[in-house]
Amino acid sequence: METNSETVRKTHKVIIVEECMKTGGIGAELVALINEQLFDELDAPVLRLSSQDIPTPYNGKLEYLTIVQPEQIAEAVDKMMQDRI
After folding, report:
1. Is 12 left (phi over 0), alpha (psi -120 to 50) or beta?
2. Domains in the chain: ranges and CATH
């Protein structure tokens, strides 16, 4: 959490990306900790990108549709940076 705290104090923004399901994933715990400990440092709400809340399919094509893809991450970063104006 110390490293995360230093980064939040530097950038004032957070995007958490995980392959876990959104409900009950580690990202949820990180969001809670950041909001509890660093809320005043944030310039925007914490954004969380994660897999859909379904069991990850074994089929590769279906798995691709359930997990976060690089394009989604890039779009989220672009949107967060545009909102800073």
Report:
1. left
2. 2-82 (3.40.50.920)
pTM: 0.80
CB 32 within 8 A of CB 64: no
Closest CA to 71 of 12, 17, 14: 17
- Give the chain's radius of gyration (CA, Å): 14
How far is Cα 82 from Cα 85, in angstroms, rounded to an integer? 6
- The tens place of each residue's pLDDT in the chain, 85 residues long, gives 899 999 999 999 999 999 888 888 899 999 999 999 999 999 999 999 998 888 888 899 999 989 999 999 999 999 888 875 4
